[in-house]
Design brief:
CATH architecture of the largest domain: 3-Layer(aba) Sandwich
Order of helices and strands: HHHEHHEEHHHHHEHEHEEHEHHEE
Strand order of the largest sheet: 6-5-4-7-8-10-9
Structural class: alpha/beta
Oligomer: single chain
Shape: globular
Number of domains: 2
Helix content: 40-55%
CATH class of the largest domain: Alpha Beta
Number of strands: 10
Bound molecules: S-adenosylmethionine
Radius of gyration: 22 Å
CATH topology of the largest domain: Rossmann fold
Distance between the termini: 58 Å
């Protein structure tokens, strides 16, 4: 007998935006931060968040059913509390907070993805730059709160990857690292924390420098991490034994990707390592859903930008002169792909 066909995965994905919006709303409201110290009844929590009584139990119990909150007891006297993951990653005061990416998903990408059909038909971006003349970073960085929101989002999406990279990559042969498009300096901070011999430079556009400096000082690493400001389409890169680019190549079209790969090659000594960290698409383009959708997100954000596979990276880097390659799996859908000069 044939097994009956099951439509549940179709329906689960179709309704996925309900799940997403409930979690993103909870983060935007600071729910996990409010619950950090005390367990709360629905009424207490609802009052603190300024919620109408109608939705309270449905909202919090949906989060319980999705395993993003715990609840002790039943009914109106029951109390909600954070799961260990909620406490660790979604309480704003936690040193491993990653909620910044959820805040940006809610504030920007949720609505821009509504225009995916238009992006697919036109090949044009659907974000803030849709009706203007400015480039994506120029537009985002013209408004300080939005720049800070973007920096928080980068921390959220990259933190765990950079922690694993600092652990797995063999730094023993190298003395210096330059992280290109280093944002808050997080990759340099995580690498320098784990490898006491390493000196790092976090290179980014001028508006980002003061934010990076603040984070480097907060980590107490200003003696081993410096910042450098520049535009990688106009300036050369600081020389270093390792050049890293976390989610940089995927922001650009092929011509600009090749420019960046050549720039990295020129900044490295023989034997130096060029590392790209991305939600690297599997070579057959069948498995890494997040990597493939990240590439669709690049269509929404930039138009002609796209994500790529390890095989693509290897081909581009070989053309520039790199000779040896390696893929290091990091967290979830992300990998570091390394080209040695
Ligand atoms: C997608 S973010 C990645 C941030 C960080 N590397 C990570 O993986 O979390 C891209 C970064 O590239 C920087 N950037 C964009 N255009 C640049 C340019 N022309 N020159 C230098 N940095 C640039 C941005 O300011 C931003 O910090």
């Amino acid at each position: 007998m044939n097994t009956p066909l099951d439509p549940s995965s179709i329906l689960q994905t179709a309704f996925g935006f309900w799940h997403s919006k409930v979690l993103l709303t909870a983060v935007e409201m600071g729910l996990f931060t409010k619950l950090a110290k005390h367990h709360r009844t629905g009424a207490e929590l609802g009052a603190e968040l300024g919620l109408h009584p109608r939705g309270i139990a449905d909202f919090f119990d949906s989060l319980v059913a999705m395993k993003f909150l715990g609840r002790e007891g039943e009914g109106v006297t029951s109390k909600y509390f954070n799961t260990p993951e909620g406490l660790h990653f979604l309480d704003e005061t936690s040193p491993r907070y990653i909620g910044g990416i959820l805040v940006m998903l809610n504030a920007r990408l949720f609505k821009f993805w509504n225009d995916l059909p238009e992006a697919l038909r036109t090949g044009k971006p659907q974000n803030e730059i849709k009706h203007g003349q400015k480039g994506m970073f120029e537009e985002l960085y013209s408004d300080l709160p939005r720049l800070e929101q973007f920096m928080g989002a980068m921390t959220g999406i990259s933190r765990v990857n950079f922690e694993v990279f600092a652990e797995k990559f063999d730094f023993s042969k190298y003395q210096t690292l330059c992280d290109v498009g280093g944002a808050t300096g997080l990759l340099s901070i995580e690498s320098a924390k784990k490898h006491s011999h390493l000196k790092c430079i976090s290179f980014d556009l001028p508006p980002v420098e003061s934010i990076a400096k603040k984070h480097i000082v907060a980590a107490g690493l200003e003696d081993r991490i410096t910042t450098a400001s520049g535009d990688f389409f106009k300036d050369s890169l600081p020389k270093a034994d390792i050049i890293t680019m976390g989610m940089i190549l995927h922001d650009w079209n092929l011509e600009k990707k090749m420019h960046l790969i050549r720039l990295a090659y020129d900044a490295l000594p023989p034997g130096g390592a060029f590392v790209a960290i991305e939600a690297l698409i599997d070579d057959a383009r069948r498995e890494n859903v997040q990597g493939l959708m990240m590439s669709l997100n690049m269509l929404i954000e930039f138009g002609d930008a796209f994500d790529y596979s390890g095989a693509d990276f290897r081909q581009w880097c070989s053309e520039v002169g790199f000779t040896r390659f390696e893929v290091i799996h990091l967290a979830g859908p992300s990998s570091a792909v390394v080209a040695y000069k």
